[in-house]
Amino acid sequence: GHPMDVLRTAVSALASFDPEVEDNSPEAVLRKGLRLTSQTATIICANHRIRQGKQPVAPSATLSHSANFLYMMRGEEPDDDEAKLMDVDFILHAEHGANASAFASRVTASTLADLHAAVVTGIGTLKGPLHGGAAESVMAMAEEIGDPAEAKAYAKRVLDGHGRIMGFGHRVYRAEDPRAQHLRERSKALGEKLGQPKWIQILDALVEAMAPYRAKGIHVNVDFFAGSIYQLMGIPEDMFIPIFALGRIPGWTLQVLEQYENNILIRPLLYYEGPMDLEYIPMEARS
């Protein structure tokens, strides 16, 4: 199954072992959020290594959160540049307002369910390709393009067929996603350092191919360059969304904390647009 399925189930199971699971006080929520941030990194990396037929790597007591993640995943300590880059990625993904997963987490929290339940809700919502799955789709797209010279033709073919170029556009931003700006140059530097400039060249060519659409408010978003960084670090594509989730745990925690502190049950009303005042037909008279 997908690593997000494992993560969702494991976080739910963790609720059974957390001594403060039913305590929704601000202090307890923060403590649980810290534990979940650490635990999810271990879960994601352990599952990744088990799928590869390898033994899980225990976390180091001396490494930072970001460095530990790469260490537990790969079995060797990352260099400072990789650890700092992972740290930037986690920070950029940590919080982003009332996005789909944050809102879903708030809905769960508004029932006064525990933090673990709210985070599981967030993970389930994040898995959807229209929310957290974009980085995974961007690299699949880059692999299909294969060469920077093919980017323009690829974009035209997809758009002429009424398809979507992944990693472009955002529900909030009508200019370039400011988070993408922090990853563009870092992705380029990492590719040059590793002698693999191909991916960023393909993505840059695609950005240029999409330039005419900037006037319509369609610009690159954070997922566009995040995928190339993960690819260069040797992270498989189905790990991209779990990394997003790991970065977002602190954000979900604080969204839930805010909901608890000024709570009201989130219960939207639906407007019915179907037929009205229909004549009742007895069951025996229906065709």
Briefly, what is this?
With 287 residues, the chain is mainly α. The protein folds into two domains: 3-132 and 236-261, Orthogonal Bundle (Citrate Synthase, domain 1), CATH 1.10.580; 134-232, Cytochrome p450-Terp, domain 2, CATH 1.10.230.10. It has helices at residues 3-14, 26-51, 65-74, 80-93, 100-110, 115-126, 134-145, 151-160, 178-193, 198-209, 222-232, 240-261.
Protein model, in words:
With 287 residues, this protein is mostly helical. It has 2 domains: 156 residues, Citrate Synthase, domain 1 (Orthogonal Bundle); 99 residues, Cytochrome p450-Terp, domain 2 (Orthogonal Bundle). The chain is 59% helix and 0% strand. It has 12 helices and no strands. Helix 1 packs antiparallel against helix 6 and helix 8 packs across helix 10. The relative contact order is 0.16.
Give the topology, please:
Blueprint: H1 3-14, H2 26-51, H3 65-74, H4 80-93, H5 100-110, H6 115-126, H7 134-145, H8 151-160, H9 178-193, H10 198-209, H11 222-232, H12 240-261
What key attributes describe this structure?
287 residues, mainly alpha, Citrate Synthase, domain 1, Cytochrome p450-Terp, domain 2, 2 domains, 12 helices, globular
Rg (C-alpha, Å)? 22 Å
What can be said about the biggest beta sheet? none
**Overall 3D form:** globular
Assembly level: single chain
* Strand/helix succession: HHHHHHHHHHHH
The number of helical segments is 12
Strand tally is: 0
* CATH level-two architecture of the largest domain: Orthogonal Bundle
CATH superfamily of the largest domain: Citrate Synthase, domain 1
From the helix content, strand content and strand pairing, which structural class follows?
Answer: mainly alpha
